[in-house]
Amino acid sequence: MDDIWIEKYRPKTLSEVVGQDEVVERLIAYAKAKTVPHLMFAGPAGTGKTTSALALAHDVFGSNWKQNFNELNASDERGIGIIRGKIKDFARTAPIGNTKFKIIFLDEADSLTTDAQAALRRTMERYTHICRFILSVNYSSKVIEPIQSRCTVFRFKPLKSESIKKYMRKIASNEKLEITSDGLEALIFIAKGDLRKAINILQVGASVDKKITADLLYETASTAKPEDVKELIEIALKGDFIKSRNKLYDLLITYGLSGEDVIRQIHQSIFDLTTISDESKIRLVEKTGEIEFRLTEGCNPHIQLEALLAQFALEGTKLK
Q1: Do 277 and 261 contact (CB within 8 A), yes or no?
Q2: Which CATH architecture group holds 226-319?
Q3: What pLDDT does residue 76 have?
């Protein structure tokens, strides 16, 4: 269990990347032509942006990929200094081997300041003959328009359940794990399309037991079971505030949840309720959003969660 599975099972070539067929097909065309424009990979975390960039470098440069590929994380240094320093120094040097260009992969590029992005735009223009940029972003709208217009944008989507299940079965087989059907469903629920998260949760579970069950994953991932959260809401809607409060603290203790964790799961569970009207759901979602904002502002999570349960209980009295 010494290896970090996210690195151990990271695809080495584009043909091994899972769940992003449309993106991979276009990138393979670039790799075969040995030409790459400036690219922007946009999408949620854990959907294969970094993996695709590394795989593209493998396919384009072959054995020289490490010498011609530089990976930087813009969230480490957000200012103009990183552009004038590390990025410019690498971009201005000639590529190694029988290739016409190098690649700079800038992760979390949307966290760069506006001044840094302006400097990056100029660097992309000046050294485009020997250097290509791949920008990885969660929100492409945070990148200035001049940079967006210079990049071919690839949209990465959250991975589908079947893609994640297939990859989890592959890892389980290689690691001699027994993963139950409810364990797979729990992984899908917890990961929510994030393959990196699913792999990390599976590795944590495997460190505890070779049999991966839903109960094991929920406990190790600090995530409450959907049915427990739904029960919490239904108790509150029946008007039994004290009982719902006790249920809340049972969940907080059993699963080690934070206030933000509970809020996210409550929000998701509201839409699965069949006993209340759409109008009631609207009011409850609005109140949940207000409480979530208060938590991010630093308010006491226990008081705020109790206030939310009180609102659910009040909403329940309208249904009687």
Answers
A1: no
A2: Up-down Bundle (1.20)
A3: 67
Domain 164-220 grouped into CATH 3.90.110.10: no
DSSP type of residue 175: T
What's the CATH fold of domain 5-155? Rossmann fold (3.40.50)
The Cα–Cα gap between 204 and 284 comes to 34
* DSSP count for the chain of H helices, then E strands: 16, 7
Where are the CATH 1.10.8.60 domain residues in the chain? Answer: 164-220
This prediction has a pTM of 0.83
Tens-place pLDDT, residues 171-225: 999 999 999 999 999 999 999 899 999 999 999 999 988 999 998 998 888 888 8
Long-range residue pairs from 113-117, CB within 8 A, at least 24 positions apart, any chain: 113/78, 113/79, 113/80, 114/144, 115/79, 115/80, 116/74, 116/78, 116/79, 116/80, 116/82, 116/83, 117/143, 117/144, 117/147
Count CA atoms closer than 13 A to 11's CA, side-chain side. 24
Alpha-helical segments (H) within 41-191? 49-61, 80-82, 88-91, 114-126, 145-150, 161-174, 181-191
239-257: pLDDT as tens digits: 889 999 999 998 888 777 8
Residue range(s) occupied by CATH 3.40.50.300 in the chain: 5-155
* Residue in this structure with the two tokens 């249920």, named with its chain if needed: 247
